[in-house]
Known about the structure:
This protein is mainly β and 129 residues long. It has helices at residues 16-24, 47-56, and strands spanning 8-15, 38-43, 61-67, 73-78, 83-89, 107-116, 119-128. It is globular, with a radius of gyration of 15 Å.
Amino acid sequence: HTGNLNGVKHFALWPLAQAARSCFGSDEWPADVPTPAAWIEFDVRDIESATSELKLLGYRLLVEMRQEPWGQTATRLLSPEGLLVGITCTPSLRPSAGNNPGGLRRWVLGVGVLRHPGHGLAAAYSVGS
C-alpha cells in the first residue's frame, strides 16, 4: 500500500467531465477553452494569498476559491503550456496539529491526463515534503 511509503500518500483518477464540472459547472469542457494536456495541483496553507498573487500577476482564473464537496478549496487556471493548474487547500491531506507537533506540512499534488476516444481521465498522486 503506497500510504505506508514516506512521502507518497494518495492515488486517484479524475474524469475530464468532473474537471469540467469543477471549473465550469458542466460535464462538457467548453469548446472555446483549450482542453488541458495534463493536470497538476499544489496544495498550500494560505489559499487566499496564493489566489491574490495569481490575480496580481495577471493570470486568468477559471475557478477562484471554489469549495469542493470533499472539503477542498480550489483556484484553477490553464497554464501557457496547456496544464490545468490547481492551487488548493485540502485540510484532509494535512496531519492534525496534535499528530504533527512541527505544524502543517506542505503537499504537492501532480496529475497527468490520459486521453481516450470520447473522454479523458486524470491520474493523481501526492508527495509530501
